[in-house]
Amino acid sequence: MDREYYPAARWCGLLHLATWLCMALMVGLLAVGLWTGPRDMLAWTLSMVGMPLALLVTSPLFAIRGYAMEDGNLRVRRLGWSSHLELGRVAEVYADPDAMKRSIRLFGNGGLFCFAGLFRNKALGNYRAFVTHPAHAVVIRAENRVIVVSPRDPAALVAAVREQSGMPAVASPA
Hints:
This protein is of the alpha+beta class. It is 30% helix and 32% strand. The chain has 3 helices and 10 strands. It has a 6-stranded mixed beta sheet with strand order 5-9-10-8-7-6, covered by helices on one side. Helix 1 runs antiparallel to helix 2. It is elongated, with a radius of gyration of 19 Å. The two termini are 35 Å apart.
């Protein structure tokens, strides 16, 4: 286990809805593929059985479980594996529940077990997201990238990133 582990925020309602709808669609396509259509067409079998089955099996592996700070770098913990993000020099880190507002997804996952990938909005420009609940968003502005994550306790992750990056601690308001 990592020295500093920060569990991901609980899923927001939109993530629950999107995940259930996508999974229901995949099960529906799988059922249609199994019980209808030509049995001797490889294209039909692959598209209506193989693809939904592959998504049903592999997509849970991309669910975000939490985050860890290691030697100034961020690890996004998934189910059985991690994404390692080199932060380099961190210029700024802060909690912002509105960070993902008015974002468009350029490439990635928009709601099947997480919001992850490359996004863009006016406030942040292009950024990488690894989020389960946008209201818990933490923005990390590093040398050449912007990353948005959503730990259960945003203040704790902000403090850890600041500490490991050598940034001064922020005084809490009185």
